């Protein structure tokens, strides 16, 4: 029997030396998840080290049935059991080696039978949809913002980045995609952005750490709880139609292997935008996951999907080039840039897209980046300059996918319905002028939290596995 004192110990190897640490009082160390957690959530105190999973024999086991493969211990199981997200081999070897190259049920390379509107791929990911000449392709710019929408960034969004005078060539206001996480989010503001035509997408309920949890430890049930739960919260407290919630981005850009995409396929999410692609010239176009990804899975211990997910789109995050550096999110670029450097960076990368295959130019932000006045000014200058071009459009992620599914040349875009701005809203979907300010107790945080919504206040603070805030 292990005592709480023993179970709170863990060891780290730093520069060749082993150091002993302890979890904070009341927490125990979970060996499998490699984190400290509450006693209720830790049930493996008897395990003293991580289990090394052996490599399966697969075909080398010479299983009696044609559709079977061998575990490391020789046990034969149906091929479909391997890399499906649940351990079936006695030694767990069916789930130990499951990247795109090792998954026996892995996706196949791009095939000529993959045709639009529901399937799109190319050998290196740079092919233009519809085989259009670059001069006939609109240069789409995708602005995305991660995390909560609240008083910290509302003025920036409403008045600095999206005033009505910033318009696309068809006279409609420019639009962006907001990946919303729950904690500290203002659902009245979120509803207003949706009313204005911006896309609201999912960024999880908890945005919990550690970062590796999302790629290594989150189960399929966890993915449902986090992502579908947040979609339900957006629907309940911002009145956003579930059918309008098309995509998601994973916290910390930690892709969740096949578990994430199984959840997406099952619930009906139509795209992910979490994969930072290796830097390439020309840049990559979005693609569907019917076939293998056309690029490597980048990142430390990153785990990209290995299976085929027909009809699910990936909007890869093309990196920005800044001198000798490359960066995915704008705020991960070198911190010593001046406002002039930022403007030159934005223009340089715009030209890298515009003068080649015109793949969508994604610029990915956390709103705190704009707190630096010279950065905000540099971005506004960039906006004013590129909006003078007749072939540049600021669209949402989903609007970009709609164009890719049915490519239209430049001279047909003024009447392209998905890029219009005639949005029909029911009275019940219109954001209120004054929200309900709900002071709610949170069982998880053991304190009161505030919820801003045009809907009625729930009894409790909404959270994972209780997204409607029920008693």
UniProtKB/TrEMBL annotation:
SMART domains on file: ChtBD2 (SM00494), LDLa (SM00192)
Xref: InterPro entries? CE4 (IPR052740), Chitin-bd_dom (IPR002557), Chitin-bd_dom_sf (IPR036508), Glyco_hydro/deAcase_b/a-brl (IPR011330), LDL_receptor-like_sf (IPR036055), LDLR_class-A_CS (IPR023415), LDrepeatLR_classA_rpt (IPR002172)
Q: Which GO terms describe its molecular function?
A: chitin binding; hydrolase activity
Q: Does the keyword Disulfide bond apply?
A: yes
Q: Which cysteines are joined by disulfide bonds?
A: 71-89, 83-98
Keyword match Disulfide bond:
yes
Alphabetical list of SUPFAM superfamilies matching this protein: Glycoside hydrolase/deacetylase, Invertebrate chitin-binding proteins, LDL receptor-like module
Top-level lineage group: Eukaryota
Which keywords label this protein?
Disulfide bond
Which GO terms of the cellular component aspect does the record hold?
extracellular region
Q: Which GO terms describe its biological process?
A: carbohydrate metabolic process
Q: Where is the Chitin-binding type-2 domain?
A: 1-47
Under what name is this protein listed?
A: Chitin-binding type-2 domain-containing protein
Q: Which organism is it from?
A: Exocentrus adspersus
Its lineage opens with:
Eukaryota, Metazoa, Ecdysozoa, Arthropoda, Hexapoda
């Amino acid at each position: 029997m292990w005592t709480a004192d023993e179970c709170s110990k863990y060891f780290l190897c730093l520069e060749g030396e082993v150091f002993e640490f302890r979890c904070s009082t009341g927490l125990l160390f979970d060996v499998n998840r490699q984190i400290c957690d509450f006693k209720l959530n830790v049930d493996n105190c008897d395990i003293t080290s991580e289990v090394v999973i052996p490599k399966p024999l697969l075909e080398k086991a010479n299983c009696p049935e044609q559709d079977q493969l061998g575990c490391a211990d020789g046990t034969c199981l149906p091929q479909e059991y391997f890399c499906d997200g649940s351990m079936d081999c006695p030694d767990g070897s069916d789930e130990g080696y499951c990247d795109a190259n090792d998954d026996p049920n892995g996706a196949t390379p791009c095939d000529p039978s993959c045709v639009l509107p529901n399937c799109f791929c190319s050998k290196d990911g740079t092919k233009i949809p519809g085989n259009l000449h670059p001069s006939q392709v609109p240069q789409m710019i995708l602005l995305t913002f991660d995390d909560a929408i609240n008083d910290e960034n509302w003025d920036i969004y409403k008045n600095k980045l999206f005033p009505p005078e910033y318009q696309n060539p068809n006279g409609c206001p420019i639009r962006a995609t907001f990946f919303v996480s729950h904690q500290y989010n203002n659902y009245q503001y979120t509803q207003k952005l949706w009313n204005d035509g911006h896309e609201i997408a999912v960024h999880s309920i908890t945005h919990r750490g550690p970062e590796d949890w999302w790629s290594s430890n989150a189960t399929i049930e966890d993915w449902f709880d986090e992502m579908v739960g947040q979609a339900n919260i957006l629907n309940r407290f911002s009145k956003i139609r579930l059918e309008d919630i098309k995509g998601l981005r994973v916290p910390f850009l930690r892709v969740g292997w096949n578990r994430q995409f199984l959840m997406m396929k099952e619930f009906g999410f139509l795209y992910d935008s979490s994969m930072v692609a290796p830097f390439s010239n020309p840049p990559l176009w979005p693609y569907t996951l019917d076939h293998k990804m056309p690029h490597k899975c980048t990142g430390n211990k990153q785990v990209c999907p290995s299976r085929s997910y027909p009809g699910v789109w990936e909007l890869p995050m093309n990196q920005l080039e800044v001198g000798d550096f490359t960066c995915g999110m704008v705020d991960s670029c070198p911190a010593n840039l001046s406002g002039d450097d930022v403007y030159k960076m934005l223009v340089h990368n715009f030209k890298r897209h515009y003068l080649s295959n015109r793949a969508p130019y994604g610029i990915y932000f956390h709103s705190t980046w704009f707190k630096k006045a010279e950065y905000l000014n540099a971005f506004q200058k960039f906006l004013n300059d590129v909006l003078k071009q007749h072939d540049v459009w600021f669209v949402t992620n989903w609007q970009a996918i709609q164009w890719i599914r049915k490519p239209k040349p430049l001279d047909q875009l003024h009447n392209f319905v998905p890029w219009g701005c005639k949005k029909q809203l029911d009275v019940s979907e219109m954001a209120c002028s004054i929200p309900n300010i709900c002071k709610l107790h949170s069982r998880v945080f053991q304190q009161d939290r505030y919820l801003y919504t045009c809907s009625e206040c729930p009894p409790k603070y909404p959270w994972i596995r209780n997204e409607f805030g029920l008693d």
